[in-house]
Design goal:
Blueprint: E1 3-8, H1 13-24, E2 28-35, E3 46-50, H2 56-59, E4 67-70, H3 76-79, H4 82-102, E5 107-111, H5 123-136, E6 142-147, E7 151-152, H6 159-173, E8 183-184, H7 185-194, E9 201-206, H8 207-216, H9 221-224
Parallel strand pairs: 1-2, 1-4, 2-3, 4-5, 5-6, 6-9, 7-8
Helix pairs in contact: 1-7, 4-5, 7-8
Length: 227
């Protein structure tokens, strides 16, 4: 049976890769995205909802389908401050998760971050950890939290990002910070789709398990999702 996918964060690097993969995947009959502005993307399987994320009453009833994928997120610089980043990375994320749960969506796949920890002294890692904790408590039939390292965008242009990723590659090559070895967004998108086949329960996937899921897809599910 084909699935209806719901996607937030569809205009970001990972979100774009995910939507492209979902549209080509025969296991999904339709893809609905929730965006702040039109993406310009057109496809017979795609329905795009342009919304105000803060106006929950206007969109909450639309969050209905088989799986909610969240690739939503921003940076402190882009947001303009911690409060604004919290509104996107935590408040909006949790509102969508709650709406999906209330509407009977059985599965939720969330992109978190390697290092996420509610007790972390880092604002970013603490925020991610707190969100992971809250969505885990919602009681979806299956919740899969993916914690990737730094991501390589297909359109990577910024010099600072290239430098950071270059340093991480070097450290990984000599055996240091191997867990933080950068990952391509297209691979993460494949891991998100494969995560839909996880058994019932709440799962957190990172490190080599995440890379295995990204590389092998559904074939890796039995090995990755084991108690």
């Amino acid at each position: 049976m084909t699935k209806k996918a719901l996607v937030i964060g569809a205009t970001g690097a990972t979100g774009r890769a995910l939507v492209a993969a979902l549209l080509q995947n025969p296991g999904f009959s339709s893809v609905e995205t929730f965006v702040r502005r039109k993406s310009g993307l057109s496809h017979e399987k795609l329905a795009e909802h342009v919304i105000d994320f803060a106006d929950e009453k206007a969109w909450s009833h639309l969050v209905a389908g088989d799986v909610l994928f969240s690739a939503l997120g921003t940076t402190l610089k882009a947001a303009g401050g911690k409060a604004a980043q919290w509104a996107v990375d935590y408040t909006a994320q949790l509102a969508f998760a709650r709406a999906a749960r209330a509407n009977g969506v059985p599965a939720y796949v969330l992109i978190s971050s390697l290092g996420a920890n509610p007790d972390s002294g880092s604002f970013y890692f603490s925020m991610k950890g707190k969100l992971d904790r809250e969505v885990s408590a919602l009681g979806f039939e299956r919740t899969v939290i993916l914690r990737p390292p730094s991501l390589i965008r297909d359109d990577l242009q910024r010099g600072s990002e290239k430098l950071t990723l270059g340093v991480l590659r070097i450290l990984s090559a000599i055996g240091l910070l191997r867990a933080w070895r950068p990952m391509r967004v297209r691979d993460l998108a494949q891991a998100m789709i494969a995560a839909c086949d996880a058994p019932a329960g709440t799962w957190t996937v990172s490190g080599e398990s995440l890379r295995k899921l990204a590389g092998e897809g559904a074939k890796a599910v039995p090995a990755v999702f084991t108690k």
